[in-house]
Design goal:
Length: 254
């Protein structure tokens, strides 16, 4: 579980609500279901128009990754790879099959399958790097989905504000209705900007970071199987793979 993501949402909205109270405002004044309907409905509708159905649905299912990112089990991967490297030097490619069962990650299993089959280094790099690239593109689509939500939300908020002002202007002779129109106008703008900057855009950026993290992890796997395939010593394989975890070289993604 990514505790910081939960805290970020709580702190962000908590600061807004607390600030409103400290300024003498009332929470009931900024809770407007009509404004919420306009902003959320309009934003969602806009994104549905330009997003393919499969991308839309996949992007929604990617949301839990922000709060529950995948456990890459880096320590376990390195331990098994180092053992496999030593065994490979002694027993050859046939020994790889007994290590495949130690992993559930499809990418790792595919990499080990190619290593066990004796695939050439160039072929392994081509296929595995292509898989990494395609996965990054898919993840980018999910990130772009939430970035689009963050882009449309403030604009739809302004549309809601205009609708509220239209109602105000049409009811100038009825003072009792002026307050409702103004409330919709201002809260719609508030919702649009708040949701964009506290939810949608941060989610998009977090998904992009997770994508880079997983790509780096898979690069480490490719480096490991290539090193083993080329017959390098266990110490060299360890050195190459550990470079991805070196605090001086990496971004602390493990």
């Amino acid at each position: 579980m990514e505790l910081f993501s939960f805290l970020g949402v709580i702190i962000g909205f908590g600061a807004l609500l607390l600030g409103n109270v400290l300024e003498g405002g009332q929470l009931s004044l900024i809770l407007n279901p009509v404004a919420l309907l306009i902003v959320m409905g309009g934003t969602l509708g806009s994104v549905m128009v330009h997003t393919p159905t499969k991308v839309f649905l996949k992007s929604l299912t990617s949301l839990p990754r922000v709060f529950f990112p995948p456990n890459l089990k880096t320590t376990h991967v390195l331990k098994v790879f180092f053992l496999m490297s030593r065994s490979y030097k002694k027993e050859g490619a046939l020994v790889v099959s007994k290590y495949e069962s130690k992993f559930t990650d499809p990418f790792i299993k595919k990499a080990l399958k190619m290593l066990g089959d004796g695939s050439s280094v160039s072929l392994m790099k081509d296929i595995l790097n292509l898989d990494i690239s395609l996965e990054e593109r898919n993840n980018q689509l999910h990130s772009d989905f939430y970035k689009s939500l963050g882009g449309y939300s403030p604009t739809i908020g302004l549309v809601g504000a205009i609708l509220g002002l239209i109602n105000v202007m049409s009811n100038l002779g009825n003072p009792e209705l002026l307050g409702h129109g103004l409330a919709v106008a201002f809260t719609a703008t508030l919702y649009g900007v708040a949701f964009a900057n506290l939810i949608f855009i941060p989610i998009a950026e977090k998904l992009a970071i997770l994508s880079e993290t997983e790509a780096m992890f898979r690069d480490m796997i490719v480096t490991g199987v290539v090193s083993i395939r080329e017959g390098e010593s266990q110490s060299i394989t360890e050195s190459r793979m550990n470079s991805f975890l070196d605090e001086r070289l990496s971004s602390g993604w493990k």
